[in-house]
Amino acid sequence: MKKWQLAGIVAALSTVSGCGGKQAGTPADAVVPPPASAAPTSTIKPVVSFNKLMVMFVDQAADPIWNAALKPPRTDKGWEQIEYHAIQLATTGTLLQVGGTGPMDMKWTNSPGWVPFTQQMSQVALAAAEAARNRNVQALQDAGDQLVLNCEACHRQFKPDLPTEGLPTHLSRGIITAPVQ
Ligand code: HEC
What we know:
Elements: H1 3-17, H2 50-70, H3 76-98, H4 105-109, H5 114-133, H6 137-158
């Protein structure tokens, strides 16, 4: 770093923190702030928006779970598919903590209330996966019910009336607020 840059930072720091008594240009005292462009919580770069993740991932994985709770699969292959979808959903809980490329996504990710909802999504989805592995219809129904509550609770707190990228759900499901036409 060039000397003049450092002096600039020290000068800026003393303005911000109010410690004006210090002499600008004393490198030993300089606290170099992280670059403004640094990601606040993670260096992992998301590649899709939450709106896309919800429509093309969460919704696609959750729907077969609810359908199976109403009409349980009759083949091993059918049960395996439910387990796969449940694991996809559990993973999405983690992805939702990383952030997304949508206009509001990083703000949501960094809100205090966000992470518990994402963790709950993963936990309930893992319970659904286990229920599918055990061919346990009652446990699958319980997990499905908890999942609806999880979607609804997070949507009540965070979801805007209109999807930020204009991608609404393809389902006319009551639990998801229909976009205003
Ligand atoms: C951690 C919070 C959170 C959880 C849990 C969550 N969502 Fe979302 N969801 C959002 C947010 C925020 C948006 C708005 C995204 C945007 O518009 O950028 C959204 C948007 C959506 C959309 C697209 C918008 C629309 O109007 O149709 C669908 C579909 C959706 N969610 C389905 C689900 C389903 C199904 C579940 C449960 C299995 C779920 N979500 C759980 C936060 C969450």
